[in-house]
Design goal:
single chain; alpha/beta; Rossmann fold; two-stranded antiparallel ribbon
Length: 199
């Protein structure tokens, strides 16, 4: 009985913390790291969620939007979109969106085999071997901690360019809990990657 009471009290405290405090935006900002908005030569856009049938999910949608915005701000000669998946690679609809927003198709390169962040990093390290210029890694705020360290560990020198995803969603009542759950899942993945020596 005592264990049940403690469990319910802990659950109530968690609900209170997530609902009425800035825990979620703070946590997302910690995972994002510094917001330096770097410029470079090659912009790397990491694919995220997929709804299936060639449709992009929420995280991929926002990565595509910020990829287009980053390209418009200038300086990039090439955009590399990475991400596989079934039934189709998520990199393809992201690239289609970038083209619809004015990014020339001949300036987009695709990597469509990777299924995980580690595979993104390993495949792009091989794809971009010998490519000159500064490489900028664009992904969601909550994903940047793991992605940046995974890419660096794989041997690809990148500059982090996070954008407000979970942090932005967590600033409204409606998006706070979904963003919080994304942060919990991502933190578990960070622990797994650290245990495997991938970051």
């Amino acid at each position: 009985m005592r264990a049940a009471v403690y469990s319910l009290a802990a659950l109530g405290l968690l609900v209170l913390l997530v609902t009425v405090t800035p825990l979620t935006p703070w946590w997302a900002a910690r995972l994002a790291g510094p917001w330096t908005n770097p410029k470079g030569d090659i912009l790397i856009v990491v694919g995220g969620s997929s709804l299936g049938n060639g449709m992009i999910g929420d995280s991929s949608y926002w990565r595509a939007i910020y990829g287009a915005l980053s390209y418009r701000e200038g300086g990039f000669r090439e955009v590399v979109v990475t991400g596989g998946g079934e039934p189709g690679a998520i990199a393809i609809p992201i690239a289609d969106y970038l083209v619809s927003q004015g990014v020339p198709r001949d300036r987009i390169r695709l990597e469509t085999k990777s299924q995980t962040t580690r595979e993104n990093a390993l495949n792009l390290t091989a794809l971009l071997a010998g490519a000159a210029g500064r490489k900028v890694l664009l992904t969601s705020d909550y994903h940047m901690y793991r992605a940046y360290r995974t890419f660096r560990k794989a041997g690809l020198d990148v500059e982090p360019a996070p954008f407000p995803d979970a942090g932005k969603r967590g600033s409204s009542w409606r998006g706070r809990w979904p963003a919080f759950l994304d942060l919990v899942v991502e933190s578990a993945k960070i622990l797994y990657y650290r245990a495997r020596g991938w970051i």
